[in-house]
Amino acid sequence: MADYVSNPFRVFWSSAVLAKRALFAWLNPAMWATQLFGMSLFQIAFFVYVATFVNNAEVTVEFVAIGNALQSLAIVSIFAVCNITGEEKNQGTIENLLVSPANRFSVFVGRAMFQIVNGIATVVIAFFYAAFIFNVDFSHANLVGLALVILITTFAMTGFGLMLSSLGLFLRTSMIIANVFLFIGLLVCGVNFPVSYLPAYIQPISYAIPMTYGTEAARMAVSGASLGEMSGTLGLEALVGFLVMIAGYLMFRGFEHLARSRGTLDRF
User: Fold this and answer.
1) pLDDT at 205 over 70
2) Burial class of residue 153 in the structure, from the number of CB atoms within 10 Å of its CB (0-12 exposed, 13-18 middle, 19+ buried)
3) What gap in Å lies between CA 219 and CA 224, rounded to an integer?
């Protein structure tokens, strides 16, 4: 047993498998499929029709459809991942988890793995809608580059969700934070209009969130940019994603210590 919990890879894998089993133990697969196929469609449609009404030369249907297709993974990477600690509190298992000798990082990243797969599937379906319902032209798209954008963005935004999840150790719930950042992403990440439209003092916030780089790289890929042309943007996104994951781990340990000292671990 000691060897098992001291092996971070085995802890990671078991956490990933158990998280998927636990999800479908209470969630009807039909409900999950409805969210998977429905959320991105309605999100893209709403903002595409708003963009059509506004009729701005820069904010085209293609601009908005691509941005929202990629941003549709936020409901998974922020909402679902951010609620990991909240679920543990609600089920009364957070204390047992934190007194175990298992590596914290492996446990919580493992818990998020199914949401990474879920996020990739969500974005792929969303780009299908963008192409066949909203008539985005993919004839010149760099599909390998777009696949790389989806992969990096999903991992980076899951790391961002884990960072926010750490707040749930100390606060009553992290879902309020998830709600706030879900809609902040729509405003500051270049999803529906260029980041340059924002006030100068807000733009640094945009570039602290991986999604900003992802939306820019996705539009480059659809327009046919090569991997070399996209490498700078993708590199920055990967770097920011790595930094937020490390920040999330440090925040997790800090909030864990704070919650222990103030007796808030079981507050829900």
Assistant:
1) yes
2) buried
3) 9
Of 3-12, 101-110, 251-260, give the range with the top mean pLDDT. Answer: 251-260
* pLDDT over threshold 70, residue 263: no
CA distance 97 to 85: 10
Per-residue model confidence as pLDDT tens digits over 79-111: 777 777 767 677 666 666 666 766 667 777 777
| Both tokens assigned to 208 | 């602290």
pLDDT at 35: 82
Buried b (16+ CB within 10 A) or exposed e, 162-201: bbbbbbbbbbebbeebbeebbebbbebbbbbbebeebeee
Exposed / middle / buried, residue 263 (Cβ in 10 Å: 0-12, 13-18, 19+): exposed
d(Cα 16, Cα 114) in Å, to the nearest integer? 6
Higher pLDDT pick, 186 / 169: 186
Can you tell me the distance from the alpha carbon of 180 to that of 96, in angstroms, rounded to the nearest whole number? 29
| Other beta carbons within 10 Å of 8 | 16
Q: Return the structure tokens found at 167.
A: 């707040």
How sure is the predictor about 49, in pLDDT bands with cuts at 50, 70 and 90?
A: very high
Which residues are CB-contacts of 201 (< 8 A; sequence separation ≥ 6)?
A: none
Q: Is the per-residue pLDDT at 26 higher than 70?
A: no
Q: How far is Cα 34 from Cα 19, in angstroms, rounded to an integer?
A: 20
User: 207 is written with which tokens?
Assistant: 């570039």
DSSP result, 18-68: HHHHHHHHHS-HHHHHHHHHHHHHHHHHHHHHHHHHHT-SSS-HHHHHHHH
